[in-house]
Write a structure and sequence with these properties.
- The chain has 421 residues and is of the alpha+beta class.
- Helix 1 packs parallel to helix 8.
- About 2% of the residues have low confidence.
Length: 421
């Protein structure tokens, strides 16, 4: 076992255990959402979605399509690359700025907007919205780029990797990310010399480059920090990477700003983890899937029912296809159908009502994106205003949890890179 045990690692692992317990109450609903709403969403558990067909138990794709529709709509409304979604402002109002300052402000807004297009932001934010629509929680990570890299690099974080807590103002200021990576990836990211002795031995001597380890990334506010320091260990937010199984500190550094953004769809008083359309519609979603499965069985039985046949009454096997001839012994009764046809229209009507209920939970009935590939900016703005009337509180939370910390993080990264000069 590794020997560099220290109080800091022990304290962080103890804190992590507490965060795991806080999240545990939500995981049951997440697993159902995994199964019926986001079956292809990668999760960090035992790899139950690695291999095999995740669609085997899905008999109605309405929840999956509704989730995709809501995610696409949120992306269209909030982070639409074709329109200027970024709107900066200052406390005294932009109109009160002097002309020169106002022009500098507009230049800064333009540079920030262009920086999003120059990075992988739009690729990753699509994954963010899929998680947000389905699980009501989404995580996003913004890393400062190194030499030769873009100004910053983005990553949507799977919710199964996220554990977090809030400060007294309800802001997420502590994030633990627990994830798996191969030894080869760990060496590329941290350097061989920073891994535990056991991992180094497996990599060098045993050549187990593809063996996985569990890494815990802990980001939390420091009590004592120096914004003007050049040393990352003095920055406002601590960053500690730990090899969890070996209780080995891989690396400690820091961030000027919180690099993780965690957004929740809807919060009840006293809650940390959010709830959203999928969880609130789970009863309808599971019932719809069961009804669809049952109706498929009924339709198959109606179309191809079982028969009651006296042994050896027919010459050869009974043929039930179209234009088939069967030869029966004269002294035997004809084969009879064992199954009475069930009236499907009523069952299908009940199923359709459940389907509509699921779609309403995901706002599909009121938030359909207009099918117009030549929408003007004015038409998009009008649609956004109408949608905000439906999702007003949700937009407010997105602004607080995601957009505001995202823009602050990106602004200061660009500032430190002298991108505004």
């Amino acid at each position: 076992m590794a020997v560099n045990r220290n109080p800091q690692v022990d304290a962080l692992l103890k804190r992590h255990d507490a965060l795991v317990e806080i999240r545990r109450g939500h995981e049951g609903a997440w697993k159902k959402i995994d199964e019926f709403v986001s079956p292809t969403q990668a999760k960090m558990e035992s790899g139950s979605h690695k291999g095999g067909n995740v669609w085997d138990n899905i008999f109605d794709s309405t929840p999956v399509r509704s989730n995709n529709t809501l995610a696409a709509t949120l992306g269209f409304l909030i982070t639409n690359q074709s329109v200027g979604w970024l709107g900066l402002d200052v406390k005294q109002g932009r109109d009160k700025l002097a002309k020169d300052d106002r022009e500098k402000f507009q230049d800064a807004e333009r540079i920030i907007s262009e920086s999003f297009g120059d990075t992988n932001f739009y690729d990753e934010v699509d994954k963010f919205w899929l998680s947000y629509a389905g699980y009501a929680i989404a995580g996003f990570y913004v890393e400062e780029g190194g030499p030769g890299d873009p100004y910053f690099i983005c990553k949507a974080i799977p919710i199964w990797e996220l554990y977090f807590s809030e400060n007294k103002w309800g802001e997420v200021d502590t994030v633990h990310r627990e994830y798996r990576m191969t030894l080869r990836q760990a060496v590329q990211e941290f350097g061989l010399e920073n891994l535990s002795p056991e991992s180094q031995r497996k990599y060098v001597k045993m050549k187990k480059m593809d063996e996985e380890i569990t890494v815990l990334h802990c980001v939390y506010p420091r009590e004592d920090f120096n914004r003007n320091s050049k040393f990352s260990k003095d920055f406002e937010f601590a960053s500690v990477y730990i090899e969890k199984e070996k209780k080995w500190k891989i690396e400690e550094s820091g961030y000027h700003e919180m690099p993780y953004m965690v957004s929740r769809f809807r919060l009840r008083a006293g809650e940390t983890y959010g709830r959203g359309p999928a969880e609130e519609a789970l009863a309808d979603i599971i019932t719809l899937n069961t009804m669809s499965k049952t109706n498929i069985k009924i339709a198959r039985k109606n179309a191809d029912p079982p028969f009651d046949i006296i042994l050896n009454s027919y010459i050869g096997r009974l043929k039930t296809g179209a234009n088939q001839a069967n030869y029966r012994q004269k002294s035997y009764e004809k084969a009879s159908v064992l199954h009475e046809a069930i009236d499907l229209p009523f069952a299908l009507e009940m199923e359709d009502r459940r389907r509509q209920s699921v779609e309403k939970s995901f706002f599909v009935d009121v938030l359909r994106i207009p099918h117009n590939d030549r929408m003007t900016t004015l038409e998009i703005r009008k649609y956004q205003q109408e949608a905000m009337q439906v999702l007003g509180p949700t937009f407010g939370r997105i602004a607080v949890d995601f957009l505001r910390p995202l823009v602050i993080r990106v602004f200061w990264i660009l500032y430190r890179a002298e991108a505004f000069d």
